[in-house]
């Protein structure tokens, strides 16, 4: 059965490019829309790349009509939490207002399926005593990033009730790692994701890794997070796509592994895989960091046909280190260094 085209917004970015790769490998028809503010043209391995803004309704409307698009997978967003605290309107403009315009273009042009990249930041600091976060926990974002995503969830939910559009919202936990084939990875400058930063320290791109808070009520005093390999997260989007195509109802699901690792455990894994210890500097807690953030995953496993392949911290770290080496080699080639 031949399917219509999929529009992937932010498909040149970290997670989006991994989804585009998996879609391309199963011969889906893809159009990628990305303004390349943080994405990279060379990360788009399949489909046509259109450089433009997600909030440009005229452009999106034309793309939907020209390419016979019936599904949107929406990644395009700013994602740096500290920046969202310092510059909230930037986040509401890009993450919320642009999503509203995108949804308008979808409504106007009869798009049926919408998969939305959301975040565990919608839960804020969950009052669940370190238990896994279920989807029915109260949402209480503590920064503009989390709130901008929650507002987008609300718009999408309301539009689905008022129209034929069906959606899947995936709330990501801590995304990490890179494509095991080594073709794409996390290329964001000044990244803040722990495993990415630790890999950069291991390879000398940064001097040290800061650990924020060593006095949390966790087994070793450092924050515990549910780290999910980006390729498993990407495959969840394809499972969500299949679910919607098969007539699935609109739904919201956590996307993680259902267990966590502490910051110290991550550092130990980086040291182990890299073969020598990285420099670590301990600092006080950051405001708003929950002690533990782990996904309850019963719902995603009972709803989607999704089987993670990379639920292994050392494997996640290994792919991260490998990608950093690839980036370094590319940089040396571009600058003519040997």
Explain what you see:
By secondary structure, this protein is of the alpha/beta class. The chain folds into two domains: 5-176 and 227-255, Rossmann fold (3-Layer(aba) Sandwich), CATH 3.40.50; 194-225 and 258-335, Alpha-Beta Complex (UDP-galactose 4-epimerase, domain 1), CATH 3.90.25.10. The chain has ten helices and 14 strands. The chain has helices at residues 14-25, 57-67, 81-86, 88-108, 144-162, 194-202, 230-245, 263-274, 298-303, 313-335; strands at 5-9, 30-34, 48-51, 69-74, 113-119, 166-172, 174-176, 209-212, 224-225, 227-229, 251-255, 261-262, 280-283, 292-293. Strand 5 (113-119), helix 5 (144-162) and strand 6 (166-172) form a beta-alpha-beta unit. It is globular and about 55 Å long. The mean pLDDT is 95.
Helix content: 25-40%
Rg calc: 19 Å
Q: How many domain units?
A: 2
Low-confidence runs: none
- CATH fold descriptor of the largest domain: Rossmann fold
Widest sheet: strand order? 3-2-1-4-5-6-11
- Assembly state: single chain
Percentage of residues in DSSP E strands: 15-25%
CATH architecture of the largest domain: 3-Layer(aba) Sandwich
Q: How many β-strands, per DSSP?
A: 14
Per the principal axes of the C-alpha atoms, what is the gross shape? Answer: globular
Largest sheet: 7 strands, parallel
Output the CATH homologous superfamily of the largest domain: NAD(P)-binding Rossmann-like Domain
Order of helices and strands: EHEEHEHHEHEEHEEEHEEHEEHH
Number of helices: 10
* CATH class bucket of the largest domain: Alpha Beta
Please tell me the overall pLDDT. Answer: 95
């Amino acid at each position: 059965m031949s399917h219509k085209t999929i529009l992937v917004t932010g498909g040149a970015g970290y997670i989006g490019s991994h989804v585009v790769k998996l879609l391309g490998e199963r011969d889906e028809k893809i159009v990628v829309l990305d303004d390349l503010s943080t994405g990279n043209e060379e990360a788009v391995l399949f489909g046509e790349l259109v450089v433009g803004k997600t909030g440009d309704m005229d452009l999106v409307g034309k793309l939907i009509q020209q390419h016979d698009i019936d599904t949107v997978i929406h990644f395009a967003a700013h994602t740096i939490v500290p920046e969202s605290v310092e510059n909230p309107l930037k986040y509401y403009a890009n993450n919320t207002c642009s999503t509203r315009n995108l949804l308008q273009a979808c409504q106007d042009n009869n798009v049926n399926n919408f998969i939305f990249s959301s975040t565990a930041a919608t839960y804020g600091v969950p009052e669940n005593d370190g238990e896994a976060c279920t989807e029915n926990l109260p949402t209480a974002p503590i920064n503009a990033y989390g709130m901008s995503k929650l507002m987008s969830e609300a718009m999408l939910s309301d539009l689905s009730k008022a129209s034929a559009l069906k959606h899947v919202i995936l709330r990501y936990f801590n995304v990490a790692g890179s494509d095991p084939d080594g073709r794409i990875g996390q290329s964001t400058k000044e990244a803040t994701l722990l495993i990415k930063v630790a890999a950069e320290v291991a390879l000398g791109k940064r001097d040290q890794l800061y650990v924020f808070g060593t006095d949390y009520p966790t087994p070793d005093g450092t924050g515990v997070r549910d780290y999910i390999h980006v390729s498993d997260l990407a495959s969840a989007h394809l499972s969500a796509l299949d679910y919607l195509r098969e007539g699935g109802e609109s739904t919201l699901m956590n996307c993680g592994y259902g267990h966590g690792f502490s910051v110290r455990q991550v550092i130990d894994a980086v040291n182990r895989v890299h073969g020598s210890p990285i420099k670590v500097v301990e600092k006080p807690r950051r405001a708003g960091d929950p002690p533990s953030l782990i996904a309850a995953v019963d719902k995603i496993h009972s709803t989607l046909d999704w089987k993670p392949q990379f639920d292994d911290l050392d494997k996640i770290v290994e792919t991260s280190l490998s990608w950093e080496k690839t980036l370094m080699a590319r940089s040396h080639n571009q600058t003519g260094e040997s």
